[in-house]
Amino acid sequence: MNKKLWGGRFSTRTDPLVEQYTSSIAVDYRLARYDVEGSIAHAKMLGRCRIISAAESRTLVGALRRILQRIAAGRWKPDPSAEDIHTQIQQALQRLVGPVAKKLHTARSRNDQVCLDVRLYCRDAVERLTRAIRAAQSSLVAFGWANRQVIIPGYTHLQRAQPVLLAHHLLAYVEMLQRDADRLTGARARIDVLPLGSGALAGTSLPIDRAYVAKLLHFARVSANSMDAVSDRDFALELLAVLSSLAVHLSRLAEDLILWTTEEFGILALDDAVATGSSLMPQKKNPDVLELIRGQAGLIIGRETAFLTMLKGLPLSYNRDMQWDKRLLFEAVEESLSALEVLARLLRRVAVQHGQLPRLMASDALCATDLAEYLVARGVAFAEAHAAVGRLVAYAEGRRRRLGQLRVHELQRFSPRFDRAALALLNPATSVARKRSAGSTNPRLVHAALVRWQRKLKNQ
Amino acid sequence: MNKKLWGGRFSTRTDPLVEQYTSSIAVDYRLARYDVEGSIAHAKMLGRCRIISAAESRTLVGALRRILQRIAAGRWKPDPSAEDIHTQIQQALQRLVGPVAKKLHTARSRNDQVCLDVRLYCRDAVERLTRAIRAAQSSLVAFGWANRQVIIPGYTHLQRAQPVLLAHHLLAYVEMLQRDADRLTGARARIDVLPLGSGALAGTSLPIDRAYVAKLLHFARVSANSMDAVSDRDFALELLAVLSSLAVHLSRLAEDLILWTTEEFGILALDDAVATGSSLMPQKKNPDVLELIRGQAGLIIGRETAFLTMLKGLPLSYNRDMQWDKRLLFEAVEESLSALEVLARLLRRVAVQHGQLPRLMASDALCATDLAEYLVARGVAFAEAHAAVGRLVAYAEGRRRRLGQLRVHELQRFSPRFDRAALALLNPATSVARKRSAGSTNPRLVHAALVRWQRKLKNQ
Amino acid sequence: MNKKLWGGRFSTRTDPLVEQYTSSIAVDYRLARYDVEGSIAHAKMLGRCRIISAAESRTLVGALRRILQRIAAGRWKPDPSAEDIHTQIQQALQRLVGPVAKKLHTARSRNDQVCLDVRLYCRDAVERLTRAIRAAQSSLVAFGWANRQVIIPGYTHLQRAQPVLLAHHLLAYVEMLQRDADRLTGARARIDVLPLGSGALAGTSLPIDRAYVAKLLHFARVSANSMDAVSDRDFALELLAVLSSLAVHLSRLAEDLILWTTEEFGILALDDAVATGSSLMPQKKNPDVLELIRGQAGLIIGRETAFLTMLKGLPLSYNRDMQWDKRLLFEAVEESLSALEVLARLLRRVAVQHGQLPRLMASDALCATDLAEYLVARGVAFAEAHAAVGRLVAYAEGRRRRLGQLRVHELQRFSPRFDRAALALLNPATSVARKRSAGSTNPRLVHAALVRWQRKLKNQ
Amino acid sequence: MNKKLWGGRFSTRTDPLVEQYTSSIAVDYRLARYDVEGSIAHAKMLGRCRIISAAESRTLVGALRRILQRIAAGRWKPDPSAEDIHTQIQQALQRLVGPVAKKLHTARSRNDQVCLDVRLYCRDAVERLTRAIRAAQSSLVAFGWANRQVIIPGYTHLQRAQPVLLAHHLLAYVEMLQRDADRLTGARARIDVLPLGSGALAGTSLPIDRAYVAKLLHFARVSANSMDAVSDRDFALELLAVLSSLAVHLSRLAEDLILWTTEEFGILALDDAVATGSSLMPQKKNPDVLELIRGQAGLIIGRETAFLTMLKGLPLSYNRDMQWDKRLLFEAVEESLSALEVLARLLRRVAVQHGQLPRLMASDALCATDLAEYLVARGVAFAEAHAAVGRLVAYAEGRRRRLGQLRVHELQRFSPRFDRAALALLNPATSVARKRSAGSTNPRLVHAALVRWQRKLKNQ
Lengths: 460, 460, 460, 460
Fold this sequence. Notes:
The structure is a homotetramer. The first copy, chain A, folds into three domains: 7-106, Fumarase/aspartase (N-terminal domain) (Fumarase C, Chain B, domain 1), CATH 1.10.275; 111-358, Fumarase C, Chain A, domain 2 (Up-down Bundle), CATH 1.20.200; 360-458, Orthogonal Bundle (Ribonucleotide Reductase Protein R1, domain 1). Chain A has 19 helices and six strands. Chain A has helices spanning 16-22, 25-28, 32-48, 54-72, 85-97, 110-146, 166-191, 210-216, 226-231, 234-260, 288-311, 324-347, 357-361, 368-377, 382-398, 408-414, 420-424, 428-434, 443-459, and strands spanning 151-156, 159-165, 193-194, 221-222, 268-270, 350-352. In chain A, the strands form three sheets. Chain A has a two-stranded antiparallel sheet. Chain A has a two-stranded parallel sheet with strand order 3-4. In chain A, helix 10 packs antiparallel against helix 11 (288-311) and helix 11 packs antiparallel against helix 12 (324-347). The longest helix of chain A has 37 residues, at 110-146. Chain A is elongated. The two termini of chain A are 51 Å apart.
């Protein structure tokens, strides 16, 4: 039995090295389920349109369903000798139903078939990723809620800037992840197009019904141009672009958590269960998980780069270069899911080191901006207020005193509008409480945001 | 006059090398207009909320409008000695209105200010890009319409596959570009968020009205989290991701056109006006424009990689690394616009080489699939039909004859279902006419698609 | 038995999800052999320096050798429950020799151990890659030699430019590959540094002898700075950079071969054994192997990007992000070897389509530059000669005549220096034969280059 | 006067949009000097080989020298109306010497000419970069020397690991930069090849003397294959790969310095002259320079990606896509030089915050490895020693005591081999002093390394 889906015109056996090099089964076995689902819809349509007989259609559909059950039950193994997953399934079908199996590939090319499979995969991936993002968001919100009173230094340039609520900081990541989820929703609309029926590139002369197949497979639309349909990988590329963005977000969160669990920052401690040790240094407790997440951003960015570079400059329509799409896509999806999952777990095993916070909040220069805004509220032009407080900070530093240790008359050297009340501002709790702008770190607003997210994440 | 927006606490003059290295004016001067528009809205709000007096607000707004006019009139030059565009505009304002200028920066940080500017830039860029994409689509449709009868070989693997209409091939690119336009629309929703009012990272204690500013500047929403707002560059990243996709599409179109204008393919000829010559070889006429477009994909992909890598692993909130965002963004937008514009122009200066087409269509193996589908319609299982025609092709090749030169009895050696009508299929015009699936290269369907696109592009 | 190399200070069991996420055995099992070789040298040194007893050293070395034999014999399987390959080997050792196994990791950290393993891997990889490059070069030279008389159009901008020998074109790729080989040699010098003995980051207080270990493992030098040694992945990065360059070269060669095997160019034909077919179109014979090679460039470039991005911004010294190095490195090396191997094979299964060459060489504008150089030799300034021939070409084109069909008096309208001899130049064989500059396509020079390469490749 | 170096065969004027899009003068004006130097050598050779007369040669050389002087004196401005720098110089020459200028481009194409120019540029760039690297190394060594007694925590995973000398940490970067310098030297050998004389792709029939030109321009070799010579950009690509590696090194150094200048780490303080402030927060002093250097790694990595992607899949020989090479190359070289220069400056303006060091070194778990090695020296198997000390650390942590506060009998609960001397090890100075392995942080070894580098950097 010729194991290939082609070969009539070929007189020499394919070189084994070539067979091995062009084989994709080690990667595309993940498409098994989607391939069979697509074939079931195709076989139904062929019967309905009388391209094959109703009985033939039923036979094919029945056998394909048995294969699908095997796949679902985990009793399906990639066959390394098959050229690809489509060939392997075709062979299994042939073993089950004999010659009628040869009718399944009617009015279909592997070009449109594989496009369909990858789209079905992507549709699933979007759902799984969306759920995993939501789980990570929930962990962030839960961690923020449990520590909703905690104030930490907010940083810009990694220099202490202004006091913020820990929960506010965490919610920034909830927002980022939400944008990724929103982009996934956008991408889904462009995934939701049936390519099957485009043939190899030109369509078919057989009387197929593409709309019916789309309905069976729950696609919103059929593709409008057959040449585009078989060479389009934009939907996968868009998914990768979202995963790059997600990976960058996770890398930034990982960086923050790595910093916070250093002895120097000391804001958080990792539970032993989510830390690792050193083979040489007995005292070490390392945030390996977070470092791996941070580093993984490199891998995912690299995959998107690879995908773009692979596509660059290809003529229409299908070219085999595109076979690499699946490897890049599958690995990026799987890695993203792992990273989200392990991060959500880790966030449930970190604890705020309350004892360390006073040390971190001690430098009351964190509240210097509050002083400047205080002057503004008393009529000083902002640029002048900024300059006055800047000089005040330099003055205190030069004397190795904290701002709160200065006397009112010393403050007044820098601006006559200072008074005793100004000194009361030099307090992180006061600082956050006085914030009033929408989106600020004001505790009331942050509390409301936490509640809003809890509700939103529950309802999805 | 201290030219910086900061400096109160600093005792030493900044090192000139540092000033030069950190200066961004050579890049961000492009933000001038957006910066002033944002400041006008901010100044109005400060007055309305009584953070500054109504008179002060009017003074500031008036002066800013004069600056805006200068910018609009092209009478604004970047000042290389300014740290950045914000500083230069602040200085200009100070020259116009004196000390009251110092009140403008109240309740604002450069962190949220520059985010606003870049969002305004991106909003504009989306519009300009959308228009440019539409223009390129129109050129493709017009070219397809003018040559709507032309049949060319469709390729897969750059091997002749099946006859297709030239217009069908061109419409594949119209579809691709439309996906880019759709993604731009998606990106626009995420651009459409006002960051101003987030302060440096924590919000402000001054009674600002962010919703009012959003209304003045036509933003759909205000940002929900101040720390996220000042460190978020996702909107620019998403724009770059779309531009990468667009660049890949243009590189593929360029590749097709480069191939088609070779002597070997000979499908198209470039007009002298859009071709270039060689300094050594007098006979050369080169498609430099198309090669530059193809190569530019590398640049734009590189910028997206750069952007992602720059963001990777940054802790919250703002870090100066992000200054590089603008350079990457501006250049990618400008290059994309140039490429679209020059391509649209070029498409109006290419001509089909009708004389060459017969040679290209001569190999009637292009219609082999039609033979196989013919057998299927007569009850042969597709896999058998495929194998039979494959052997038939090998048979003809071995005898150096074209399929159309074979006799019916020869065909029947490969399948008894062949008859005289089969030989009539070996004709490109018949081949495309017999296609009937939705999205196929059937001339009626392609005609309808051309009309649909003409209408759609006109109405936008 | 605690399966980890650390854990004394840990009180909670590691979360299974964390164990799974941080496990690297699925990737680093490829290091097994190198890990054991390194351990043998280390154990010898520990004994020689009396850090462990001579008997202990012998016991360890003996057991490690047995493990090495198992690996060499292919009887070693990755144990998915081990954290990494180092742990798995440590466990195997413990099973073989009991408690004394616990002495092996003395004065060693996994940080310097894994660096050693990867360097040993890279050293091997350089050798294997160099051999594979040489094999590909040999295939190119052999193919060129077999067709050393064949003249084809040389292209710039994919437009026919001047006649060149096919062998000259192929030798261009031999040169490119040689640069990659040279860069590998350069990289090897930087791989050739022993990191072992650097401890986790600071060195050790135990009296080890690094020079002795370097000698046993044939390293040219020991690393000079322990912190650098454990965080340095430059040697792997440099290897990846060479592989990117190599991948680009192969992608260009693949592109040329894909073009040459189109019906339009028709210079080459692939043997059936190295081509593939279509599941729909019976007549197709596709160069899938070449397309996969071309596309693979994207993957390898993506890996280098990933590697760089992963390293970017990491503080000293070791960070777990670096674990991803191995995956990127191993896959890039393996893919490069596959591509070289399959390409060398393919080059032995292509044939020049001699019958097609006359058609390709027919357009005698290919020799226009020869006409211009002829005028220069007769005293015309080159710029004038170029312009004259340019106009001549346009004149002939306008009349749809080939240059060779023009009369001398017509030529003389464009330059009085033309005479009958000029017309004799319009011949590809004459064109290449008249070339005389070093490195040109002159047949004598190309012949000499082929011979030189044959000799060089044989002697290596 | 036709401003183009081609055009004879063209009948229509080039579209202005096309002229603008294909113009490269805005980028390649940087090649002016190299272009003229190359032309001088070419003109000399043309005369010597009697392709032009001796008098013509002298005229051309004389005029070119005058142009060179203008360039050297900074009196040369890019002419935006010229197609490229070669055209502009050709025009200037024509203005100076009239018709004889038309003879300069004999036996030369812009293809080989621009290759020459870029190689000359790269040769210079290698020198400038090598000097700049050396200057940065000198700053590191000087800073290390000035603080050669300072002990800081060494980190792995950003967790405190073992005490190290600050100078040891800095020398790790000196090693990294040295590898970049070494790779530059390697790259130089591949730059050092004369492409001129390769013509457009095939060489020339005129009797040129390439070896003479190589000698005049100090090239080690002439290129061996004309088709390779005009399409080879490997030398530039290799340079970019080194710059990526360099950028990663600088980004890591920047990260370390950013961390060290946080209030949390507090190891270093930046002088005001190399720090910047905030427009909102008066107290801020930000390490913008370091963040820009860190972020720049993204840009440079992006450029290498762009370069590779641009080259991927291009057929031989020259294609205009390659024009983008210069932009990528020039910008990467210039940015790298800036980053090195500003970093060297900054390193002279940072100060160790000696007052903060005791706090950082307080946690004596930094010396836990010394305890384990102590046990090893007393006969305990390393794995047992590691476990014992690990439990000891957990014990002390559980009681919130430092190791140094434990009593000997408490230590002995974990290993009977502990004695009073063990407690004396819990001291950073002792820890570094006891290190003895080559490349370790032992002060004597670090001192020797500093001296060795001082000498080496002086002598270069």
